[in-house]
Write a structure and sequence with these properties.
single chain; 216 residues; alpha/beta; Metallo-beta-lactamase, Chain A; 6-stranded mixed sheet; 7 helices
Length: 216
């Protein structure tokens, strides 16, 4: 199993391609700005895109859904609590002055502790709301693809509609900080980190953070 990271677009988004190296099946997590550039690599390596996985439905994490669904036929997977956000994708874009193609409807609804099989690779789903109502984390091997839940030295912002600081902190403390310290944290923006590093030094987890410093 391999996870490839692509840092893309004007908001420093991370899009991830999970590959089961035995079957050559792949899953794309949070196709963001300019993620169309990933498709040639998928085809050149003879990967079959089986899923488009969304950690949540803020526009910068799902803006590439329509392109990849059209080009590959891969189904979109999302937690049902973020369905309204996904359906409001064009309106979200307009708030930031960005024209956005509506996303196709998801055909897979993710639930807490469910598993998506990618060839022989299990992708475990954790429900981690707070930044968005239907936010999830994907656990793959020793890595956690956490979307906008947790960042290096920061947490997801909670000043958006449907967000909740208390819910986000509960998700981080009860779902993410219970993972082993060596678990790699693959966030939706910025640098990679580990659970142990964030447990030890993240100011928001030590009670020293300022809410307005939280990441996108």
């Amino acid at each position: 199993m391999a996870i490839h990271r692509y840092s893309l677009g004007m908001m420093d988004n991370n899009t991830y391609l999970i590959v089961d190296e035995v079957s050559r099946d792949a899953a794309l997590v949070d196709p963001s700005f300019d993620s169309e550039a990933i498709l040639p690599a998928i085809r050149a390596n003879a990967y079959t895109l089986r899923y488009i996985l969304n950690t949540h439905a803020h526009f910068d994490h799902v803006i590439g859904n329509a392109f990849f669904a059209e080009q590959t036929g891969a189904p979109i997977a999302l937690h049902r609590a973020d369905l309204d956000l996904l359906r409001a994708l064009p309106e979200q874009g307009r708030m930031f002055g960005v024209s956005v193609t509506p996303s196709p409807e998801p055909t897979i609804f993710l639930t807490d502790e469910s598993t998506v099989m990618l060839g022989e690779t299990p992708i475990r789903v954790l429900f981690t709301p707070g930044h968005a109502p239907g936010h999830v984390t994907f656990l793959v091997g020793d890595s956690a693809i956490v979307g906008d839940c947790l960042f290096k030295d920061s947490i997801g912002r909670t000043d958006l509609p449907g967000a909740s600081l208390s819910t986000l902190m509960h998700s981080i403390r009860t779902r993410l900080l219970t993972l082993p310290d060596e678990t790699r944290v693959l966030p939706g923006h910025g640098e990679l980190t580990t659970i142990g590093a964030e447990r030890a030094t993240n100011p928001f987890l030590q009670g020293r953070g300022i809410r307005t410093e939280a990441r996108e």
